[in-house]
Design brief:
This protein has 338 residues and is α+β, with helices and mostly antiparallel strands. It has one domain. The chain contains eight helices and 14 strands. The strands form three sheets. A seven-stranded mixed beta sheet has the order 5-10-6-11-14-13-12. Strands 1, 4, 7, 8 and 9 form a five-stranded mixed beta sheet that branches. A two-stranded antiparallel sheet has the order 2-3. The longest helix has 26 residues.
Amino acid sequence: MAIIGNTYLGLIDVMKREGNELGDIVEALHTLNPVMKDANVLECNMGTKHRASIRTGLPSVSWGALYEGIKQSKSTTTEVDDVTGFVEGLSTVDSRLLKIAGKNAAKVRMSESNPFLEAMSQEFEKTFWYSNIGSSPRKFHGFFARYNALTNPNVINGGGVGSDNTSIAMITWGDQATSIITPEGMGAGIDREDKGEHRVLDPNGDPYYAKDELFTQHGGCHVKDWRYSGRVANIDVSDVIAGTRTINPLLRKLYYKLQGRRTYGMQNQGGIIGATNTVIYMNRTLLEALDAESTNGASTDNFVRLKTREIQGEEITTWRGIPIRDTDNILNTETRVQ
């Protein structure tokens, strides 16, 4: 069985290969942003945007006969551009505090930077899920914005009609499936720039000296083949809590919609060209309900059992062998998808 992170290029791998000294920061962000742990990273091929040719039609073929010609045909494609954006944070620490800290000055600066890192992490993942460049042009086009209509075959209707809905995402990461994209020549993950010491003013207008660190993260979302990922939308949270809406049937419907599902498991074994691994994302409300379903021992119990496996020292819950990540950035207040 392949191990997550061992057979495909992830965010940490990219940062380590680039010699980024903040690899430890990205490790810390994993506990805050589960997308970081799983995402395939792809460098843009047009500066700050990535252009992909997506096949929309196959060539026609025909049965042949001796002494007869072959009809000419070709496939059809369309070009899609995905853009990137960047989020920033500026950490300011009093120079006198760093002098007092002595040899622990670096740890003090890191402790002051952690809130910025967490805020950036949460903002990036919220943008990944919900951003729409039509209404937020400074950001990138998010995942749910691409699966936002029930006419999409890979969007399953959970039946909710109110405004207390949530979603489940099933994402296959890979160059030919879904990726986090970064600008050409730009380092992956969070970049830190020490801006040095400078003179600042306190609220009373009195001067003192401080040191700044600028944190920047560039990124975007690219879905090359929509068939390998999908969404269960309109899951009524109130019904889930009340026990009148079950999660397993919805997951099963989405599972059988996904292209190449037979080769998924914990890790792609070569059955999908350009795909790496498939992961299920939901918030803790749904994960708790799914866990309750899987432990039901009644005579009418016919649900798929959740299983846990240890992957790189971490306990991972799986459904049909597919890892489940819980994230609080998938909201319980989504409007109805129609």
